[in-house]
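All the exercises in this workshop are built on plain-text protein records. Sequence and backbone structure share a record, each on its own labelled line. The question running through the whole workshop is how a given chain folds. The record below serves as our worked example for the rest of this section.
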Amino acid sequence: MQRQGSIGGGSAAIRIRATGGVLLLAHLAFVAWLTLRPLDVPWVTPANLQPFAGIRADLALGWQEAARRITEGLALLAPLGVLIPMTHGRLTVSPLGSLVRAVAAGALISLAIELLQTGVPGQIVDVDSVLLNTLGVALAHATIVPAARRHLRRRSERTRRPASPQEPAQGRTPTIPRVGIAP
């Protein structure tokens, strides 16, 4: 049975959800490898627990370096803004509710990464990373997901249109031949 408002037909919806799930797991594995591997560094700076202090320090290094670091922070978890709704597989959902769910999931994953980094040699806990990662999830979701859902809804409506104007949108009612009762 297909869920109300889910993507397209049965097999297409399953393929999209499965693809989203596989891509989500692959992305999370990549992020875990990138952020939780030990680093050989001669010294470690203290943890940054003051919001926007790291961003201000990046800006003090110059615009090019600041833009690179801020873009990296925004891009790290940005695919989650698309992959989380993709694994959910709904076309008719509140845009605000979908955004809130994706951003909350992105913030929790970013916070979990930062908490796990406390035990990894060479990795530094930075509250600005949580802020930038969460903002990246929100931007990716807001720019891609509504347009993709609109496109999929239109495509789904085109495939469900009746073949002729006399035929209803649900298709013809099947007829069952009468069978006589045996003596």
Summary: The mean pLDDT is 86.
